[in-house]
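Retro notes, structure queue

What went well: the backlog is down to a handful. What didn't: a couple of records were mislabeled last round, so from now on we paste the full input next to the output in the thread. Example, using Helix-turn-helix domain-containing protein from Microbacterium suwonense:
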Amino acid sequence: MSTVTTMKAPDLGHEFVKPQEVARLIPGLTVKKLAEWRYERRGPDYYKFGRVILYDVEELKSWIDASAMSSGDGHAR
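Corresponding output:
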């Protein structure tokens, strides 16, 4: 009789999304534009694990909040 051992994945404190999901969440943003921003070292922070690119949801929210523009003067808040 064999025993199957299952392990719960550890909670790393991060929720990650792929570039495709980021592009779906932000109207007008494309996967290609995200790739350009990564190359130019612009845009939201990201994590790279080998060839896998991931964005932390909380960091993405912070980047979005920091990108808010004031309607009065056209400058970032």
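Agreed that this is the format going forward. Reviewer comment attached to the example: The chain has a mean pLDDT of 86.
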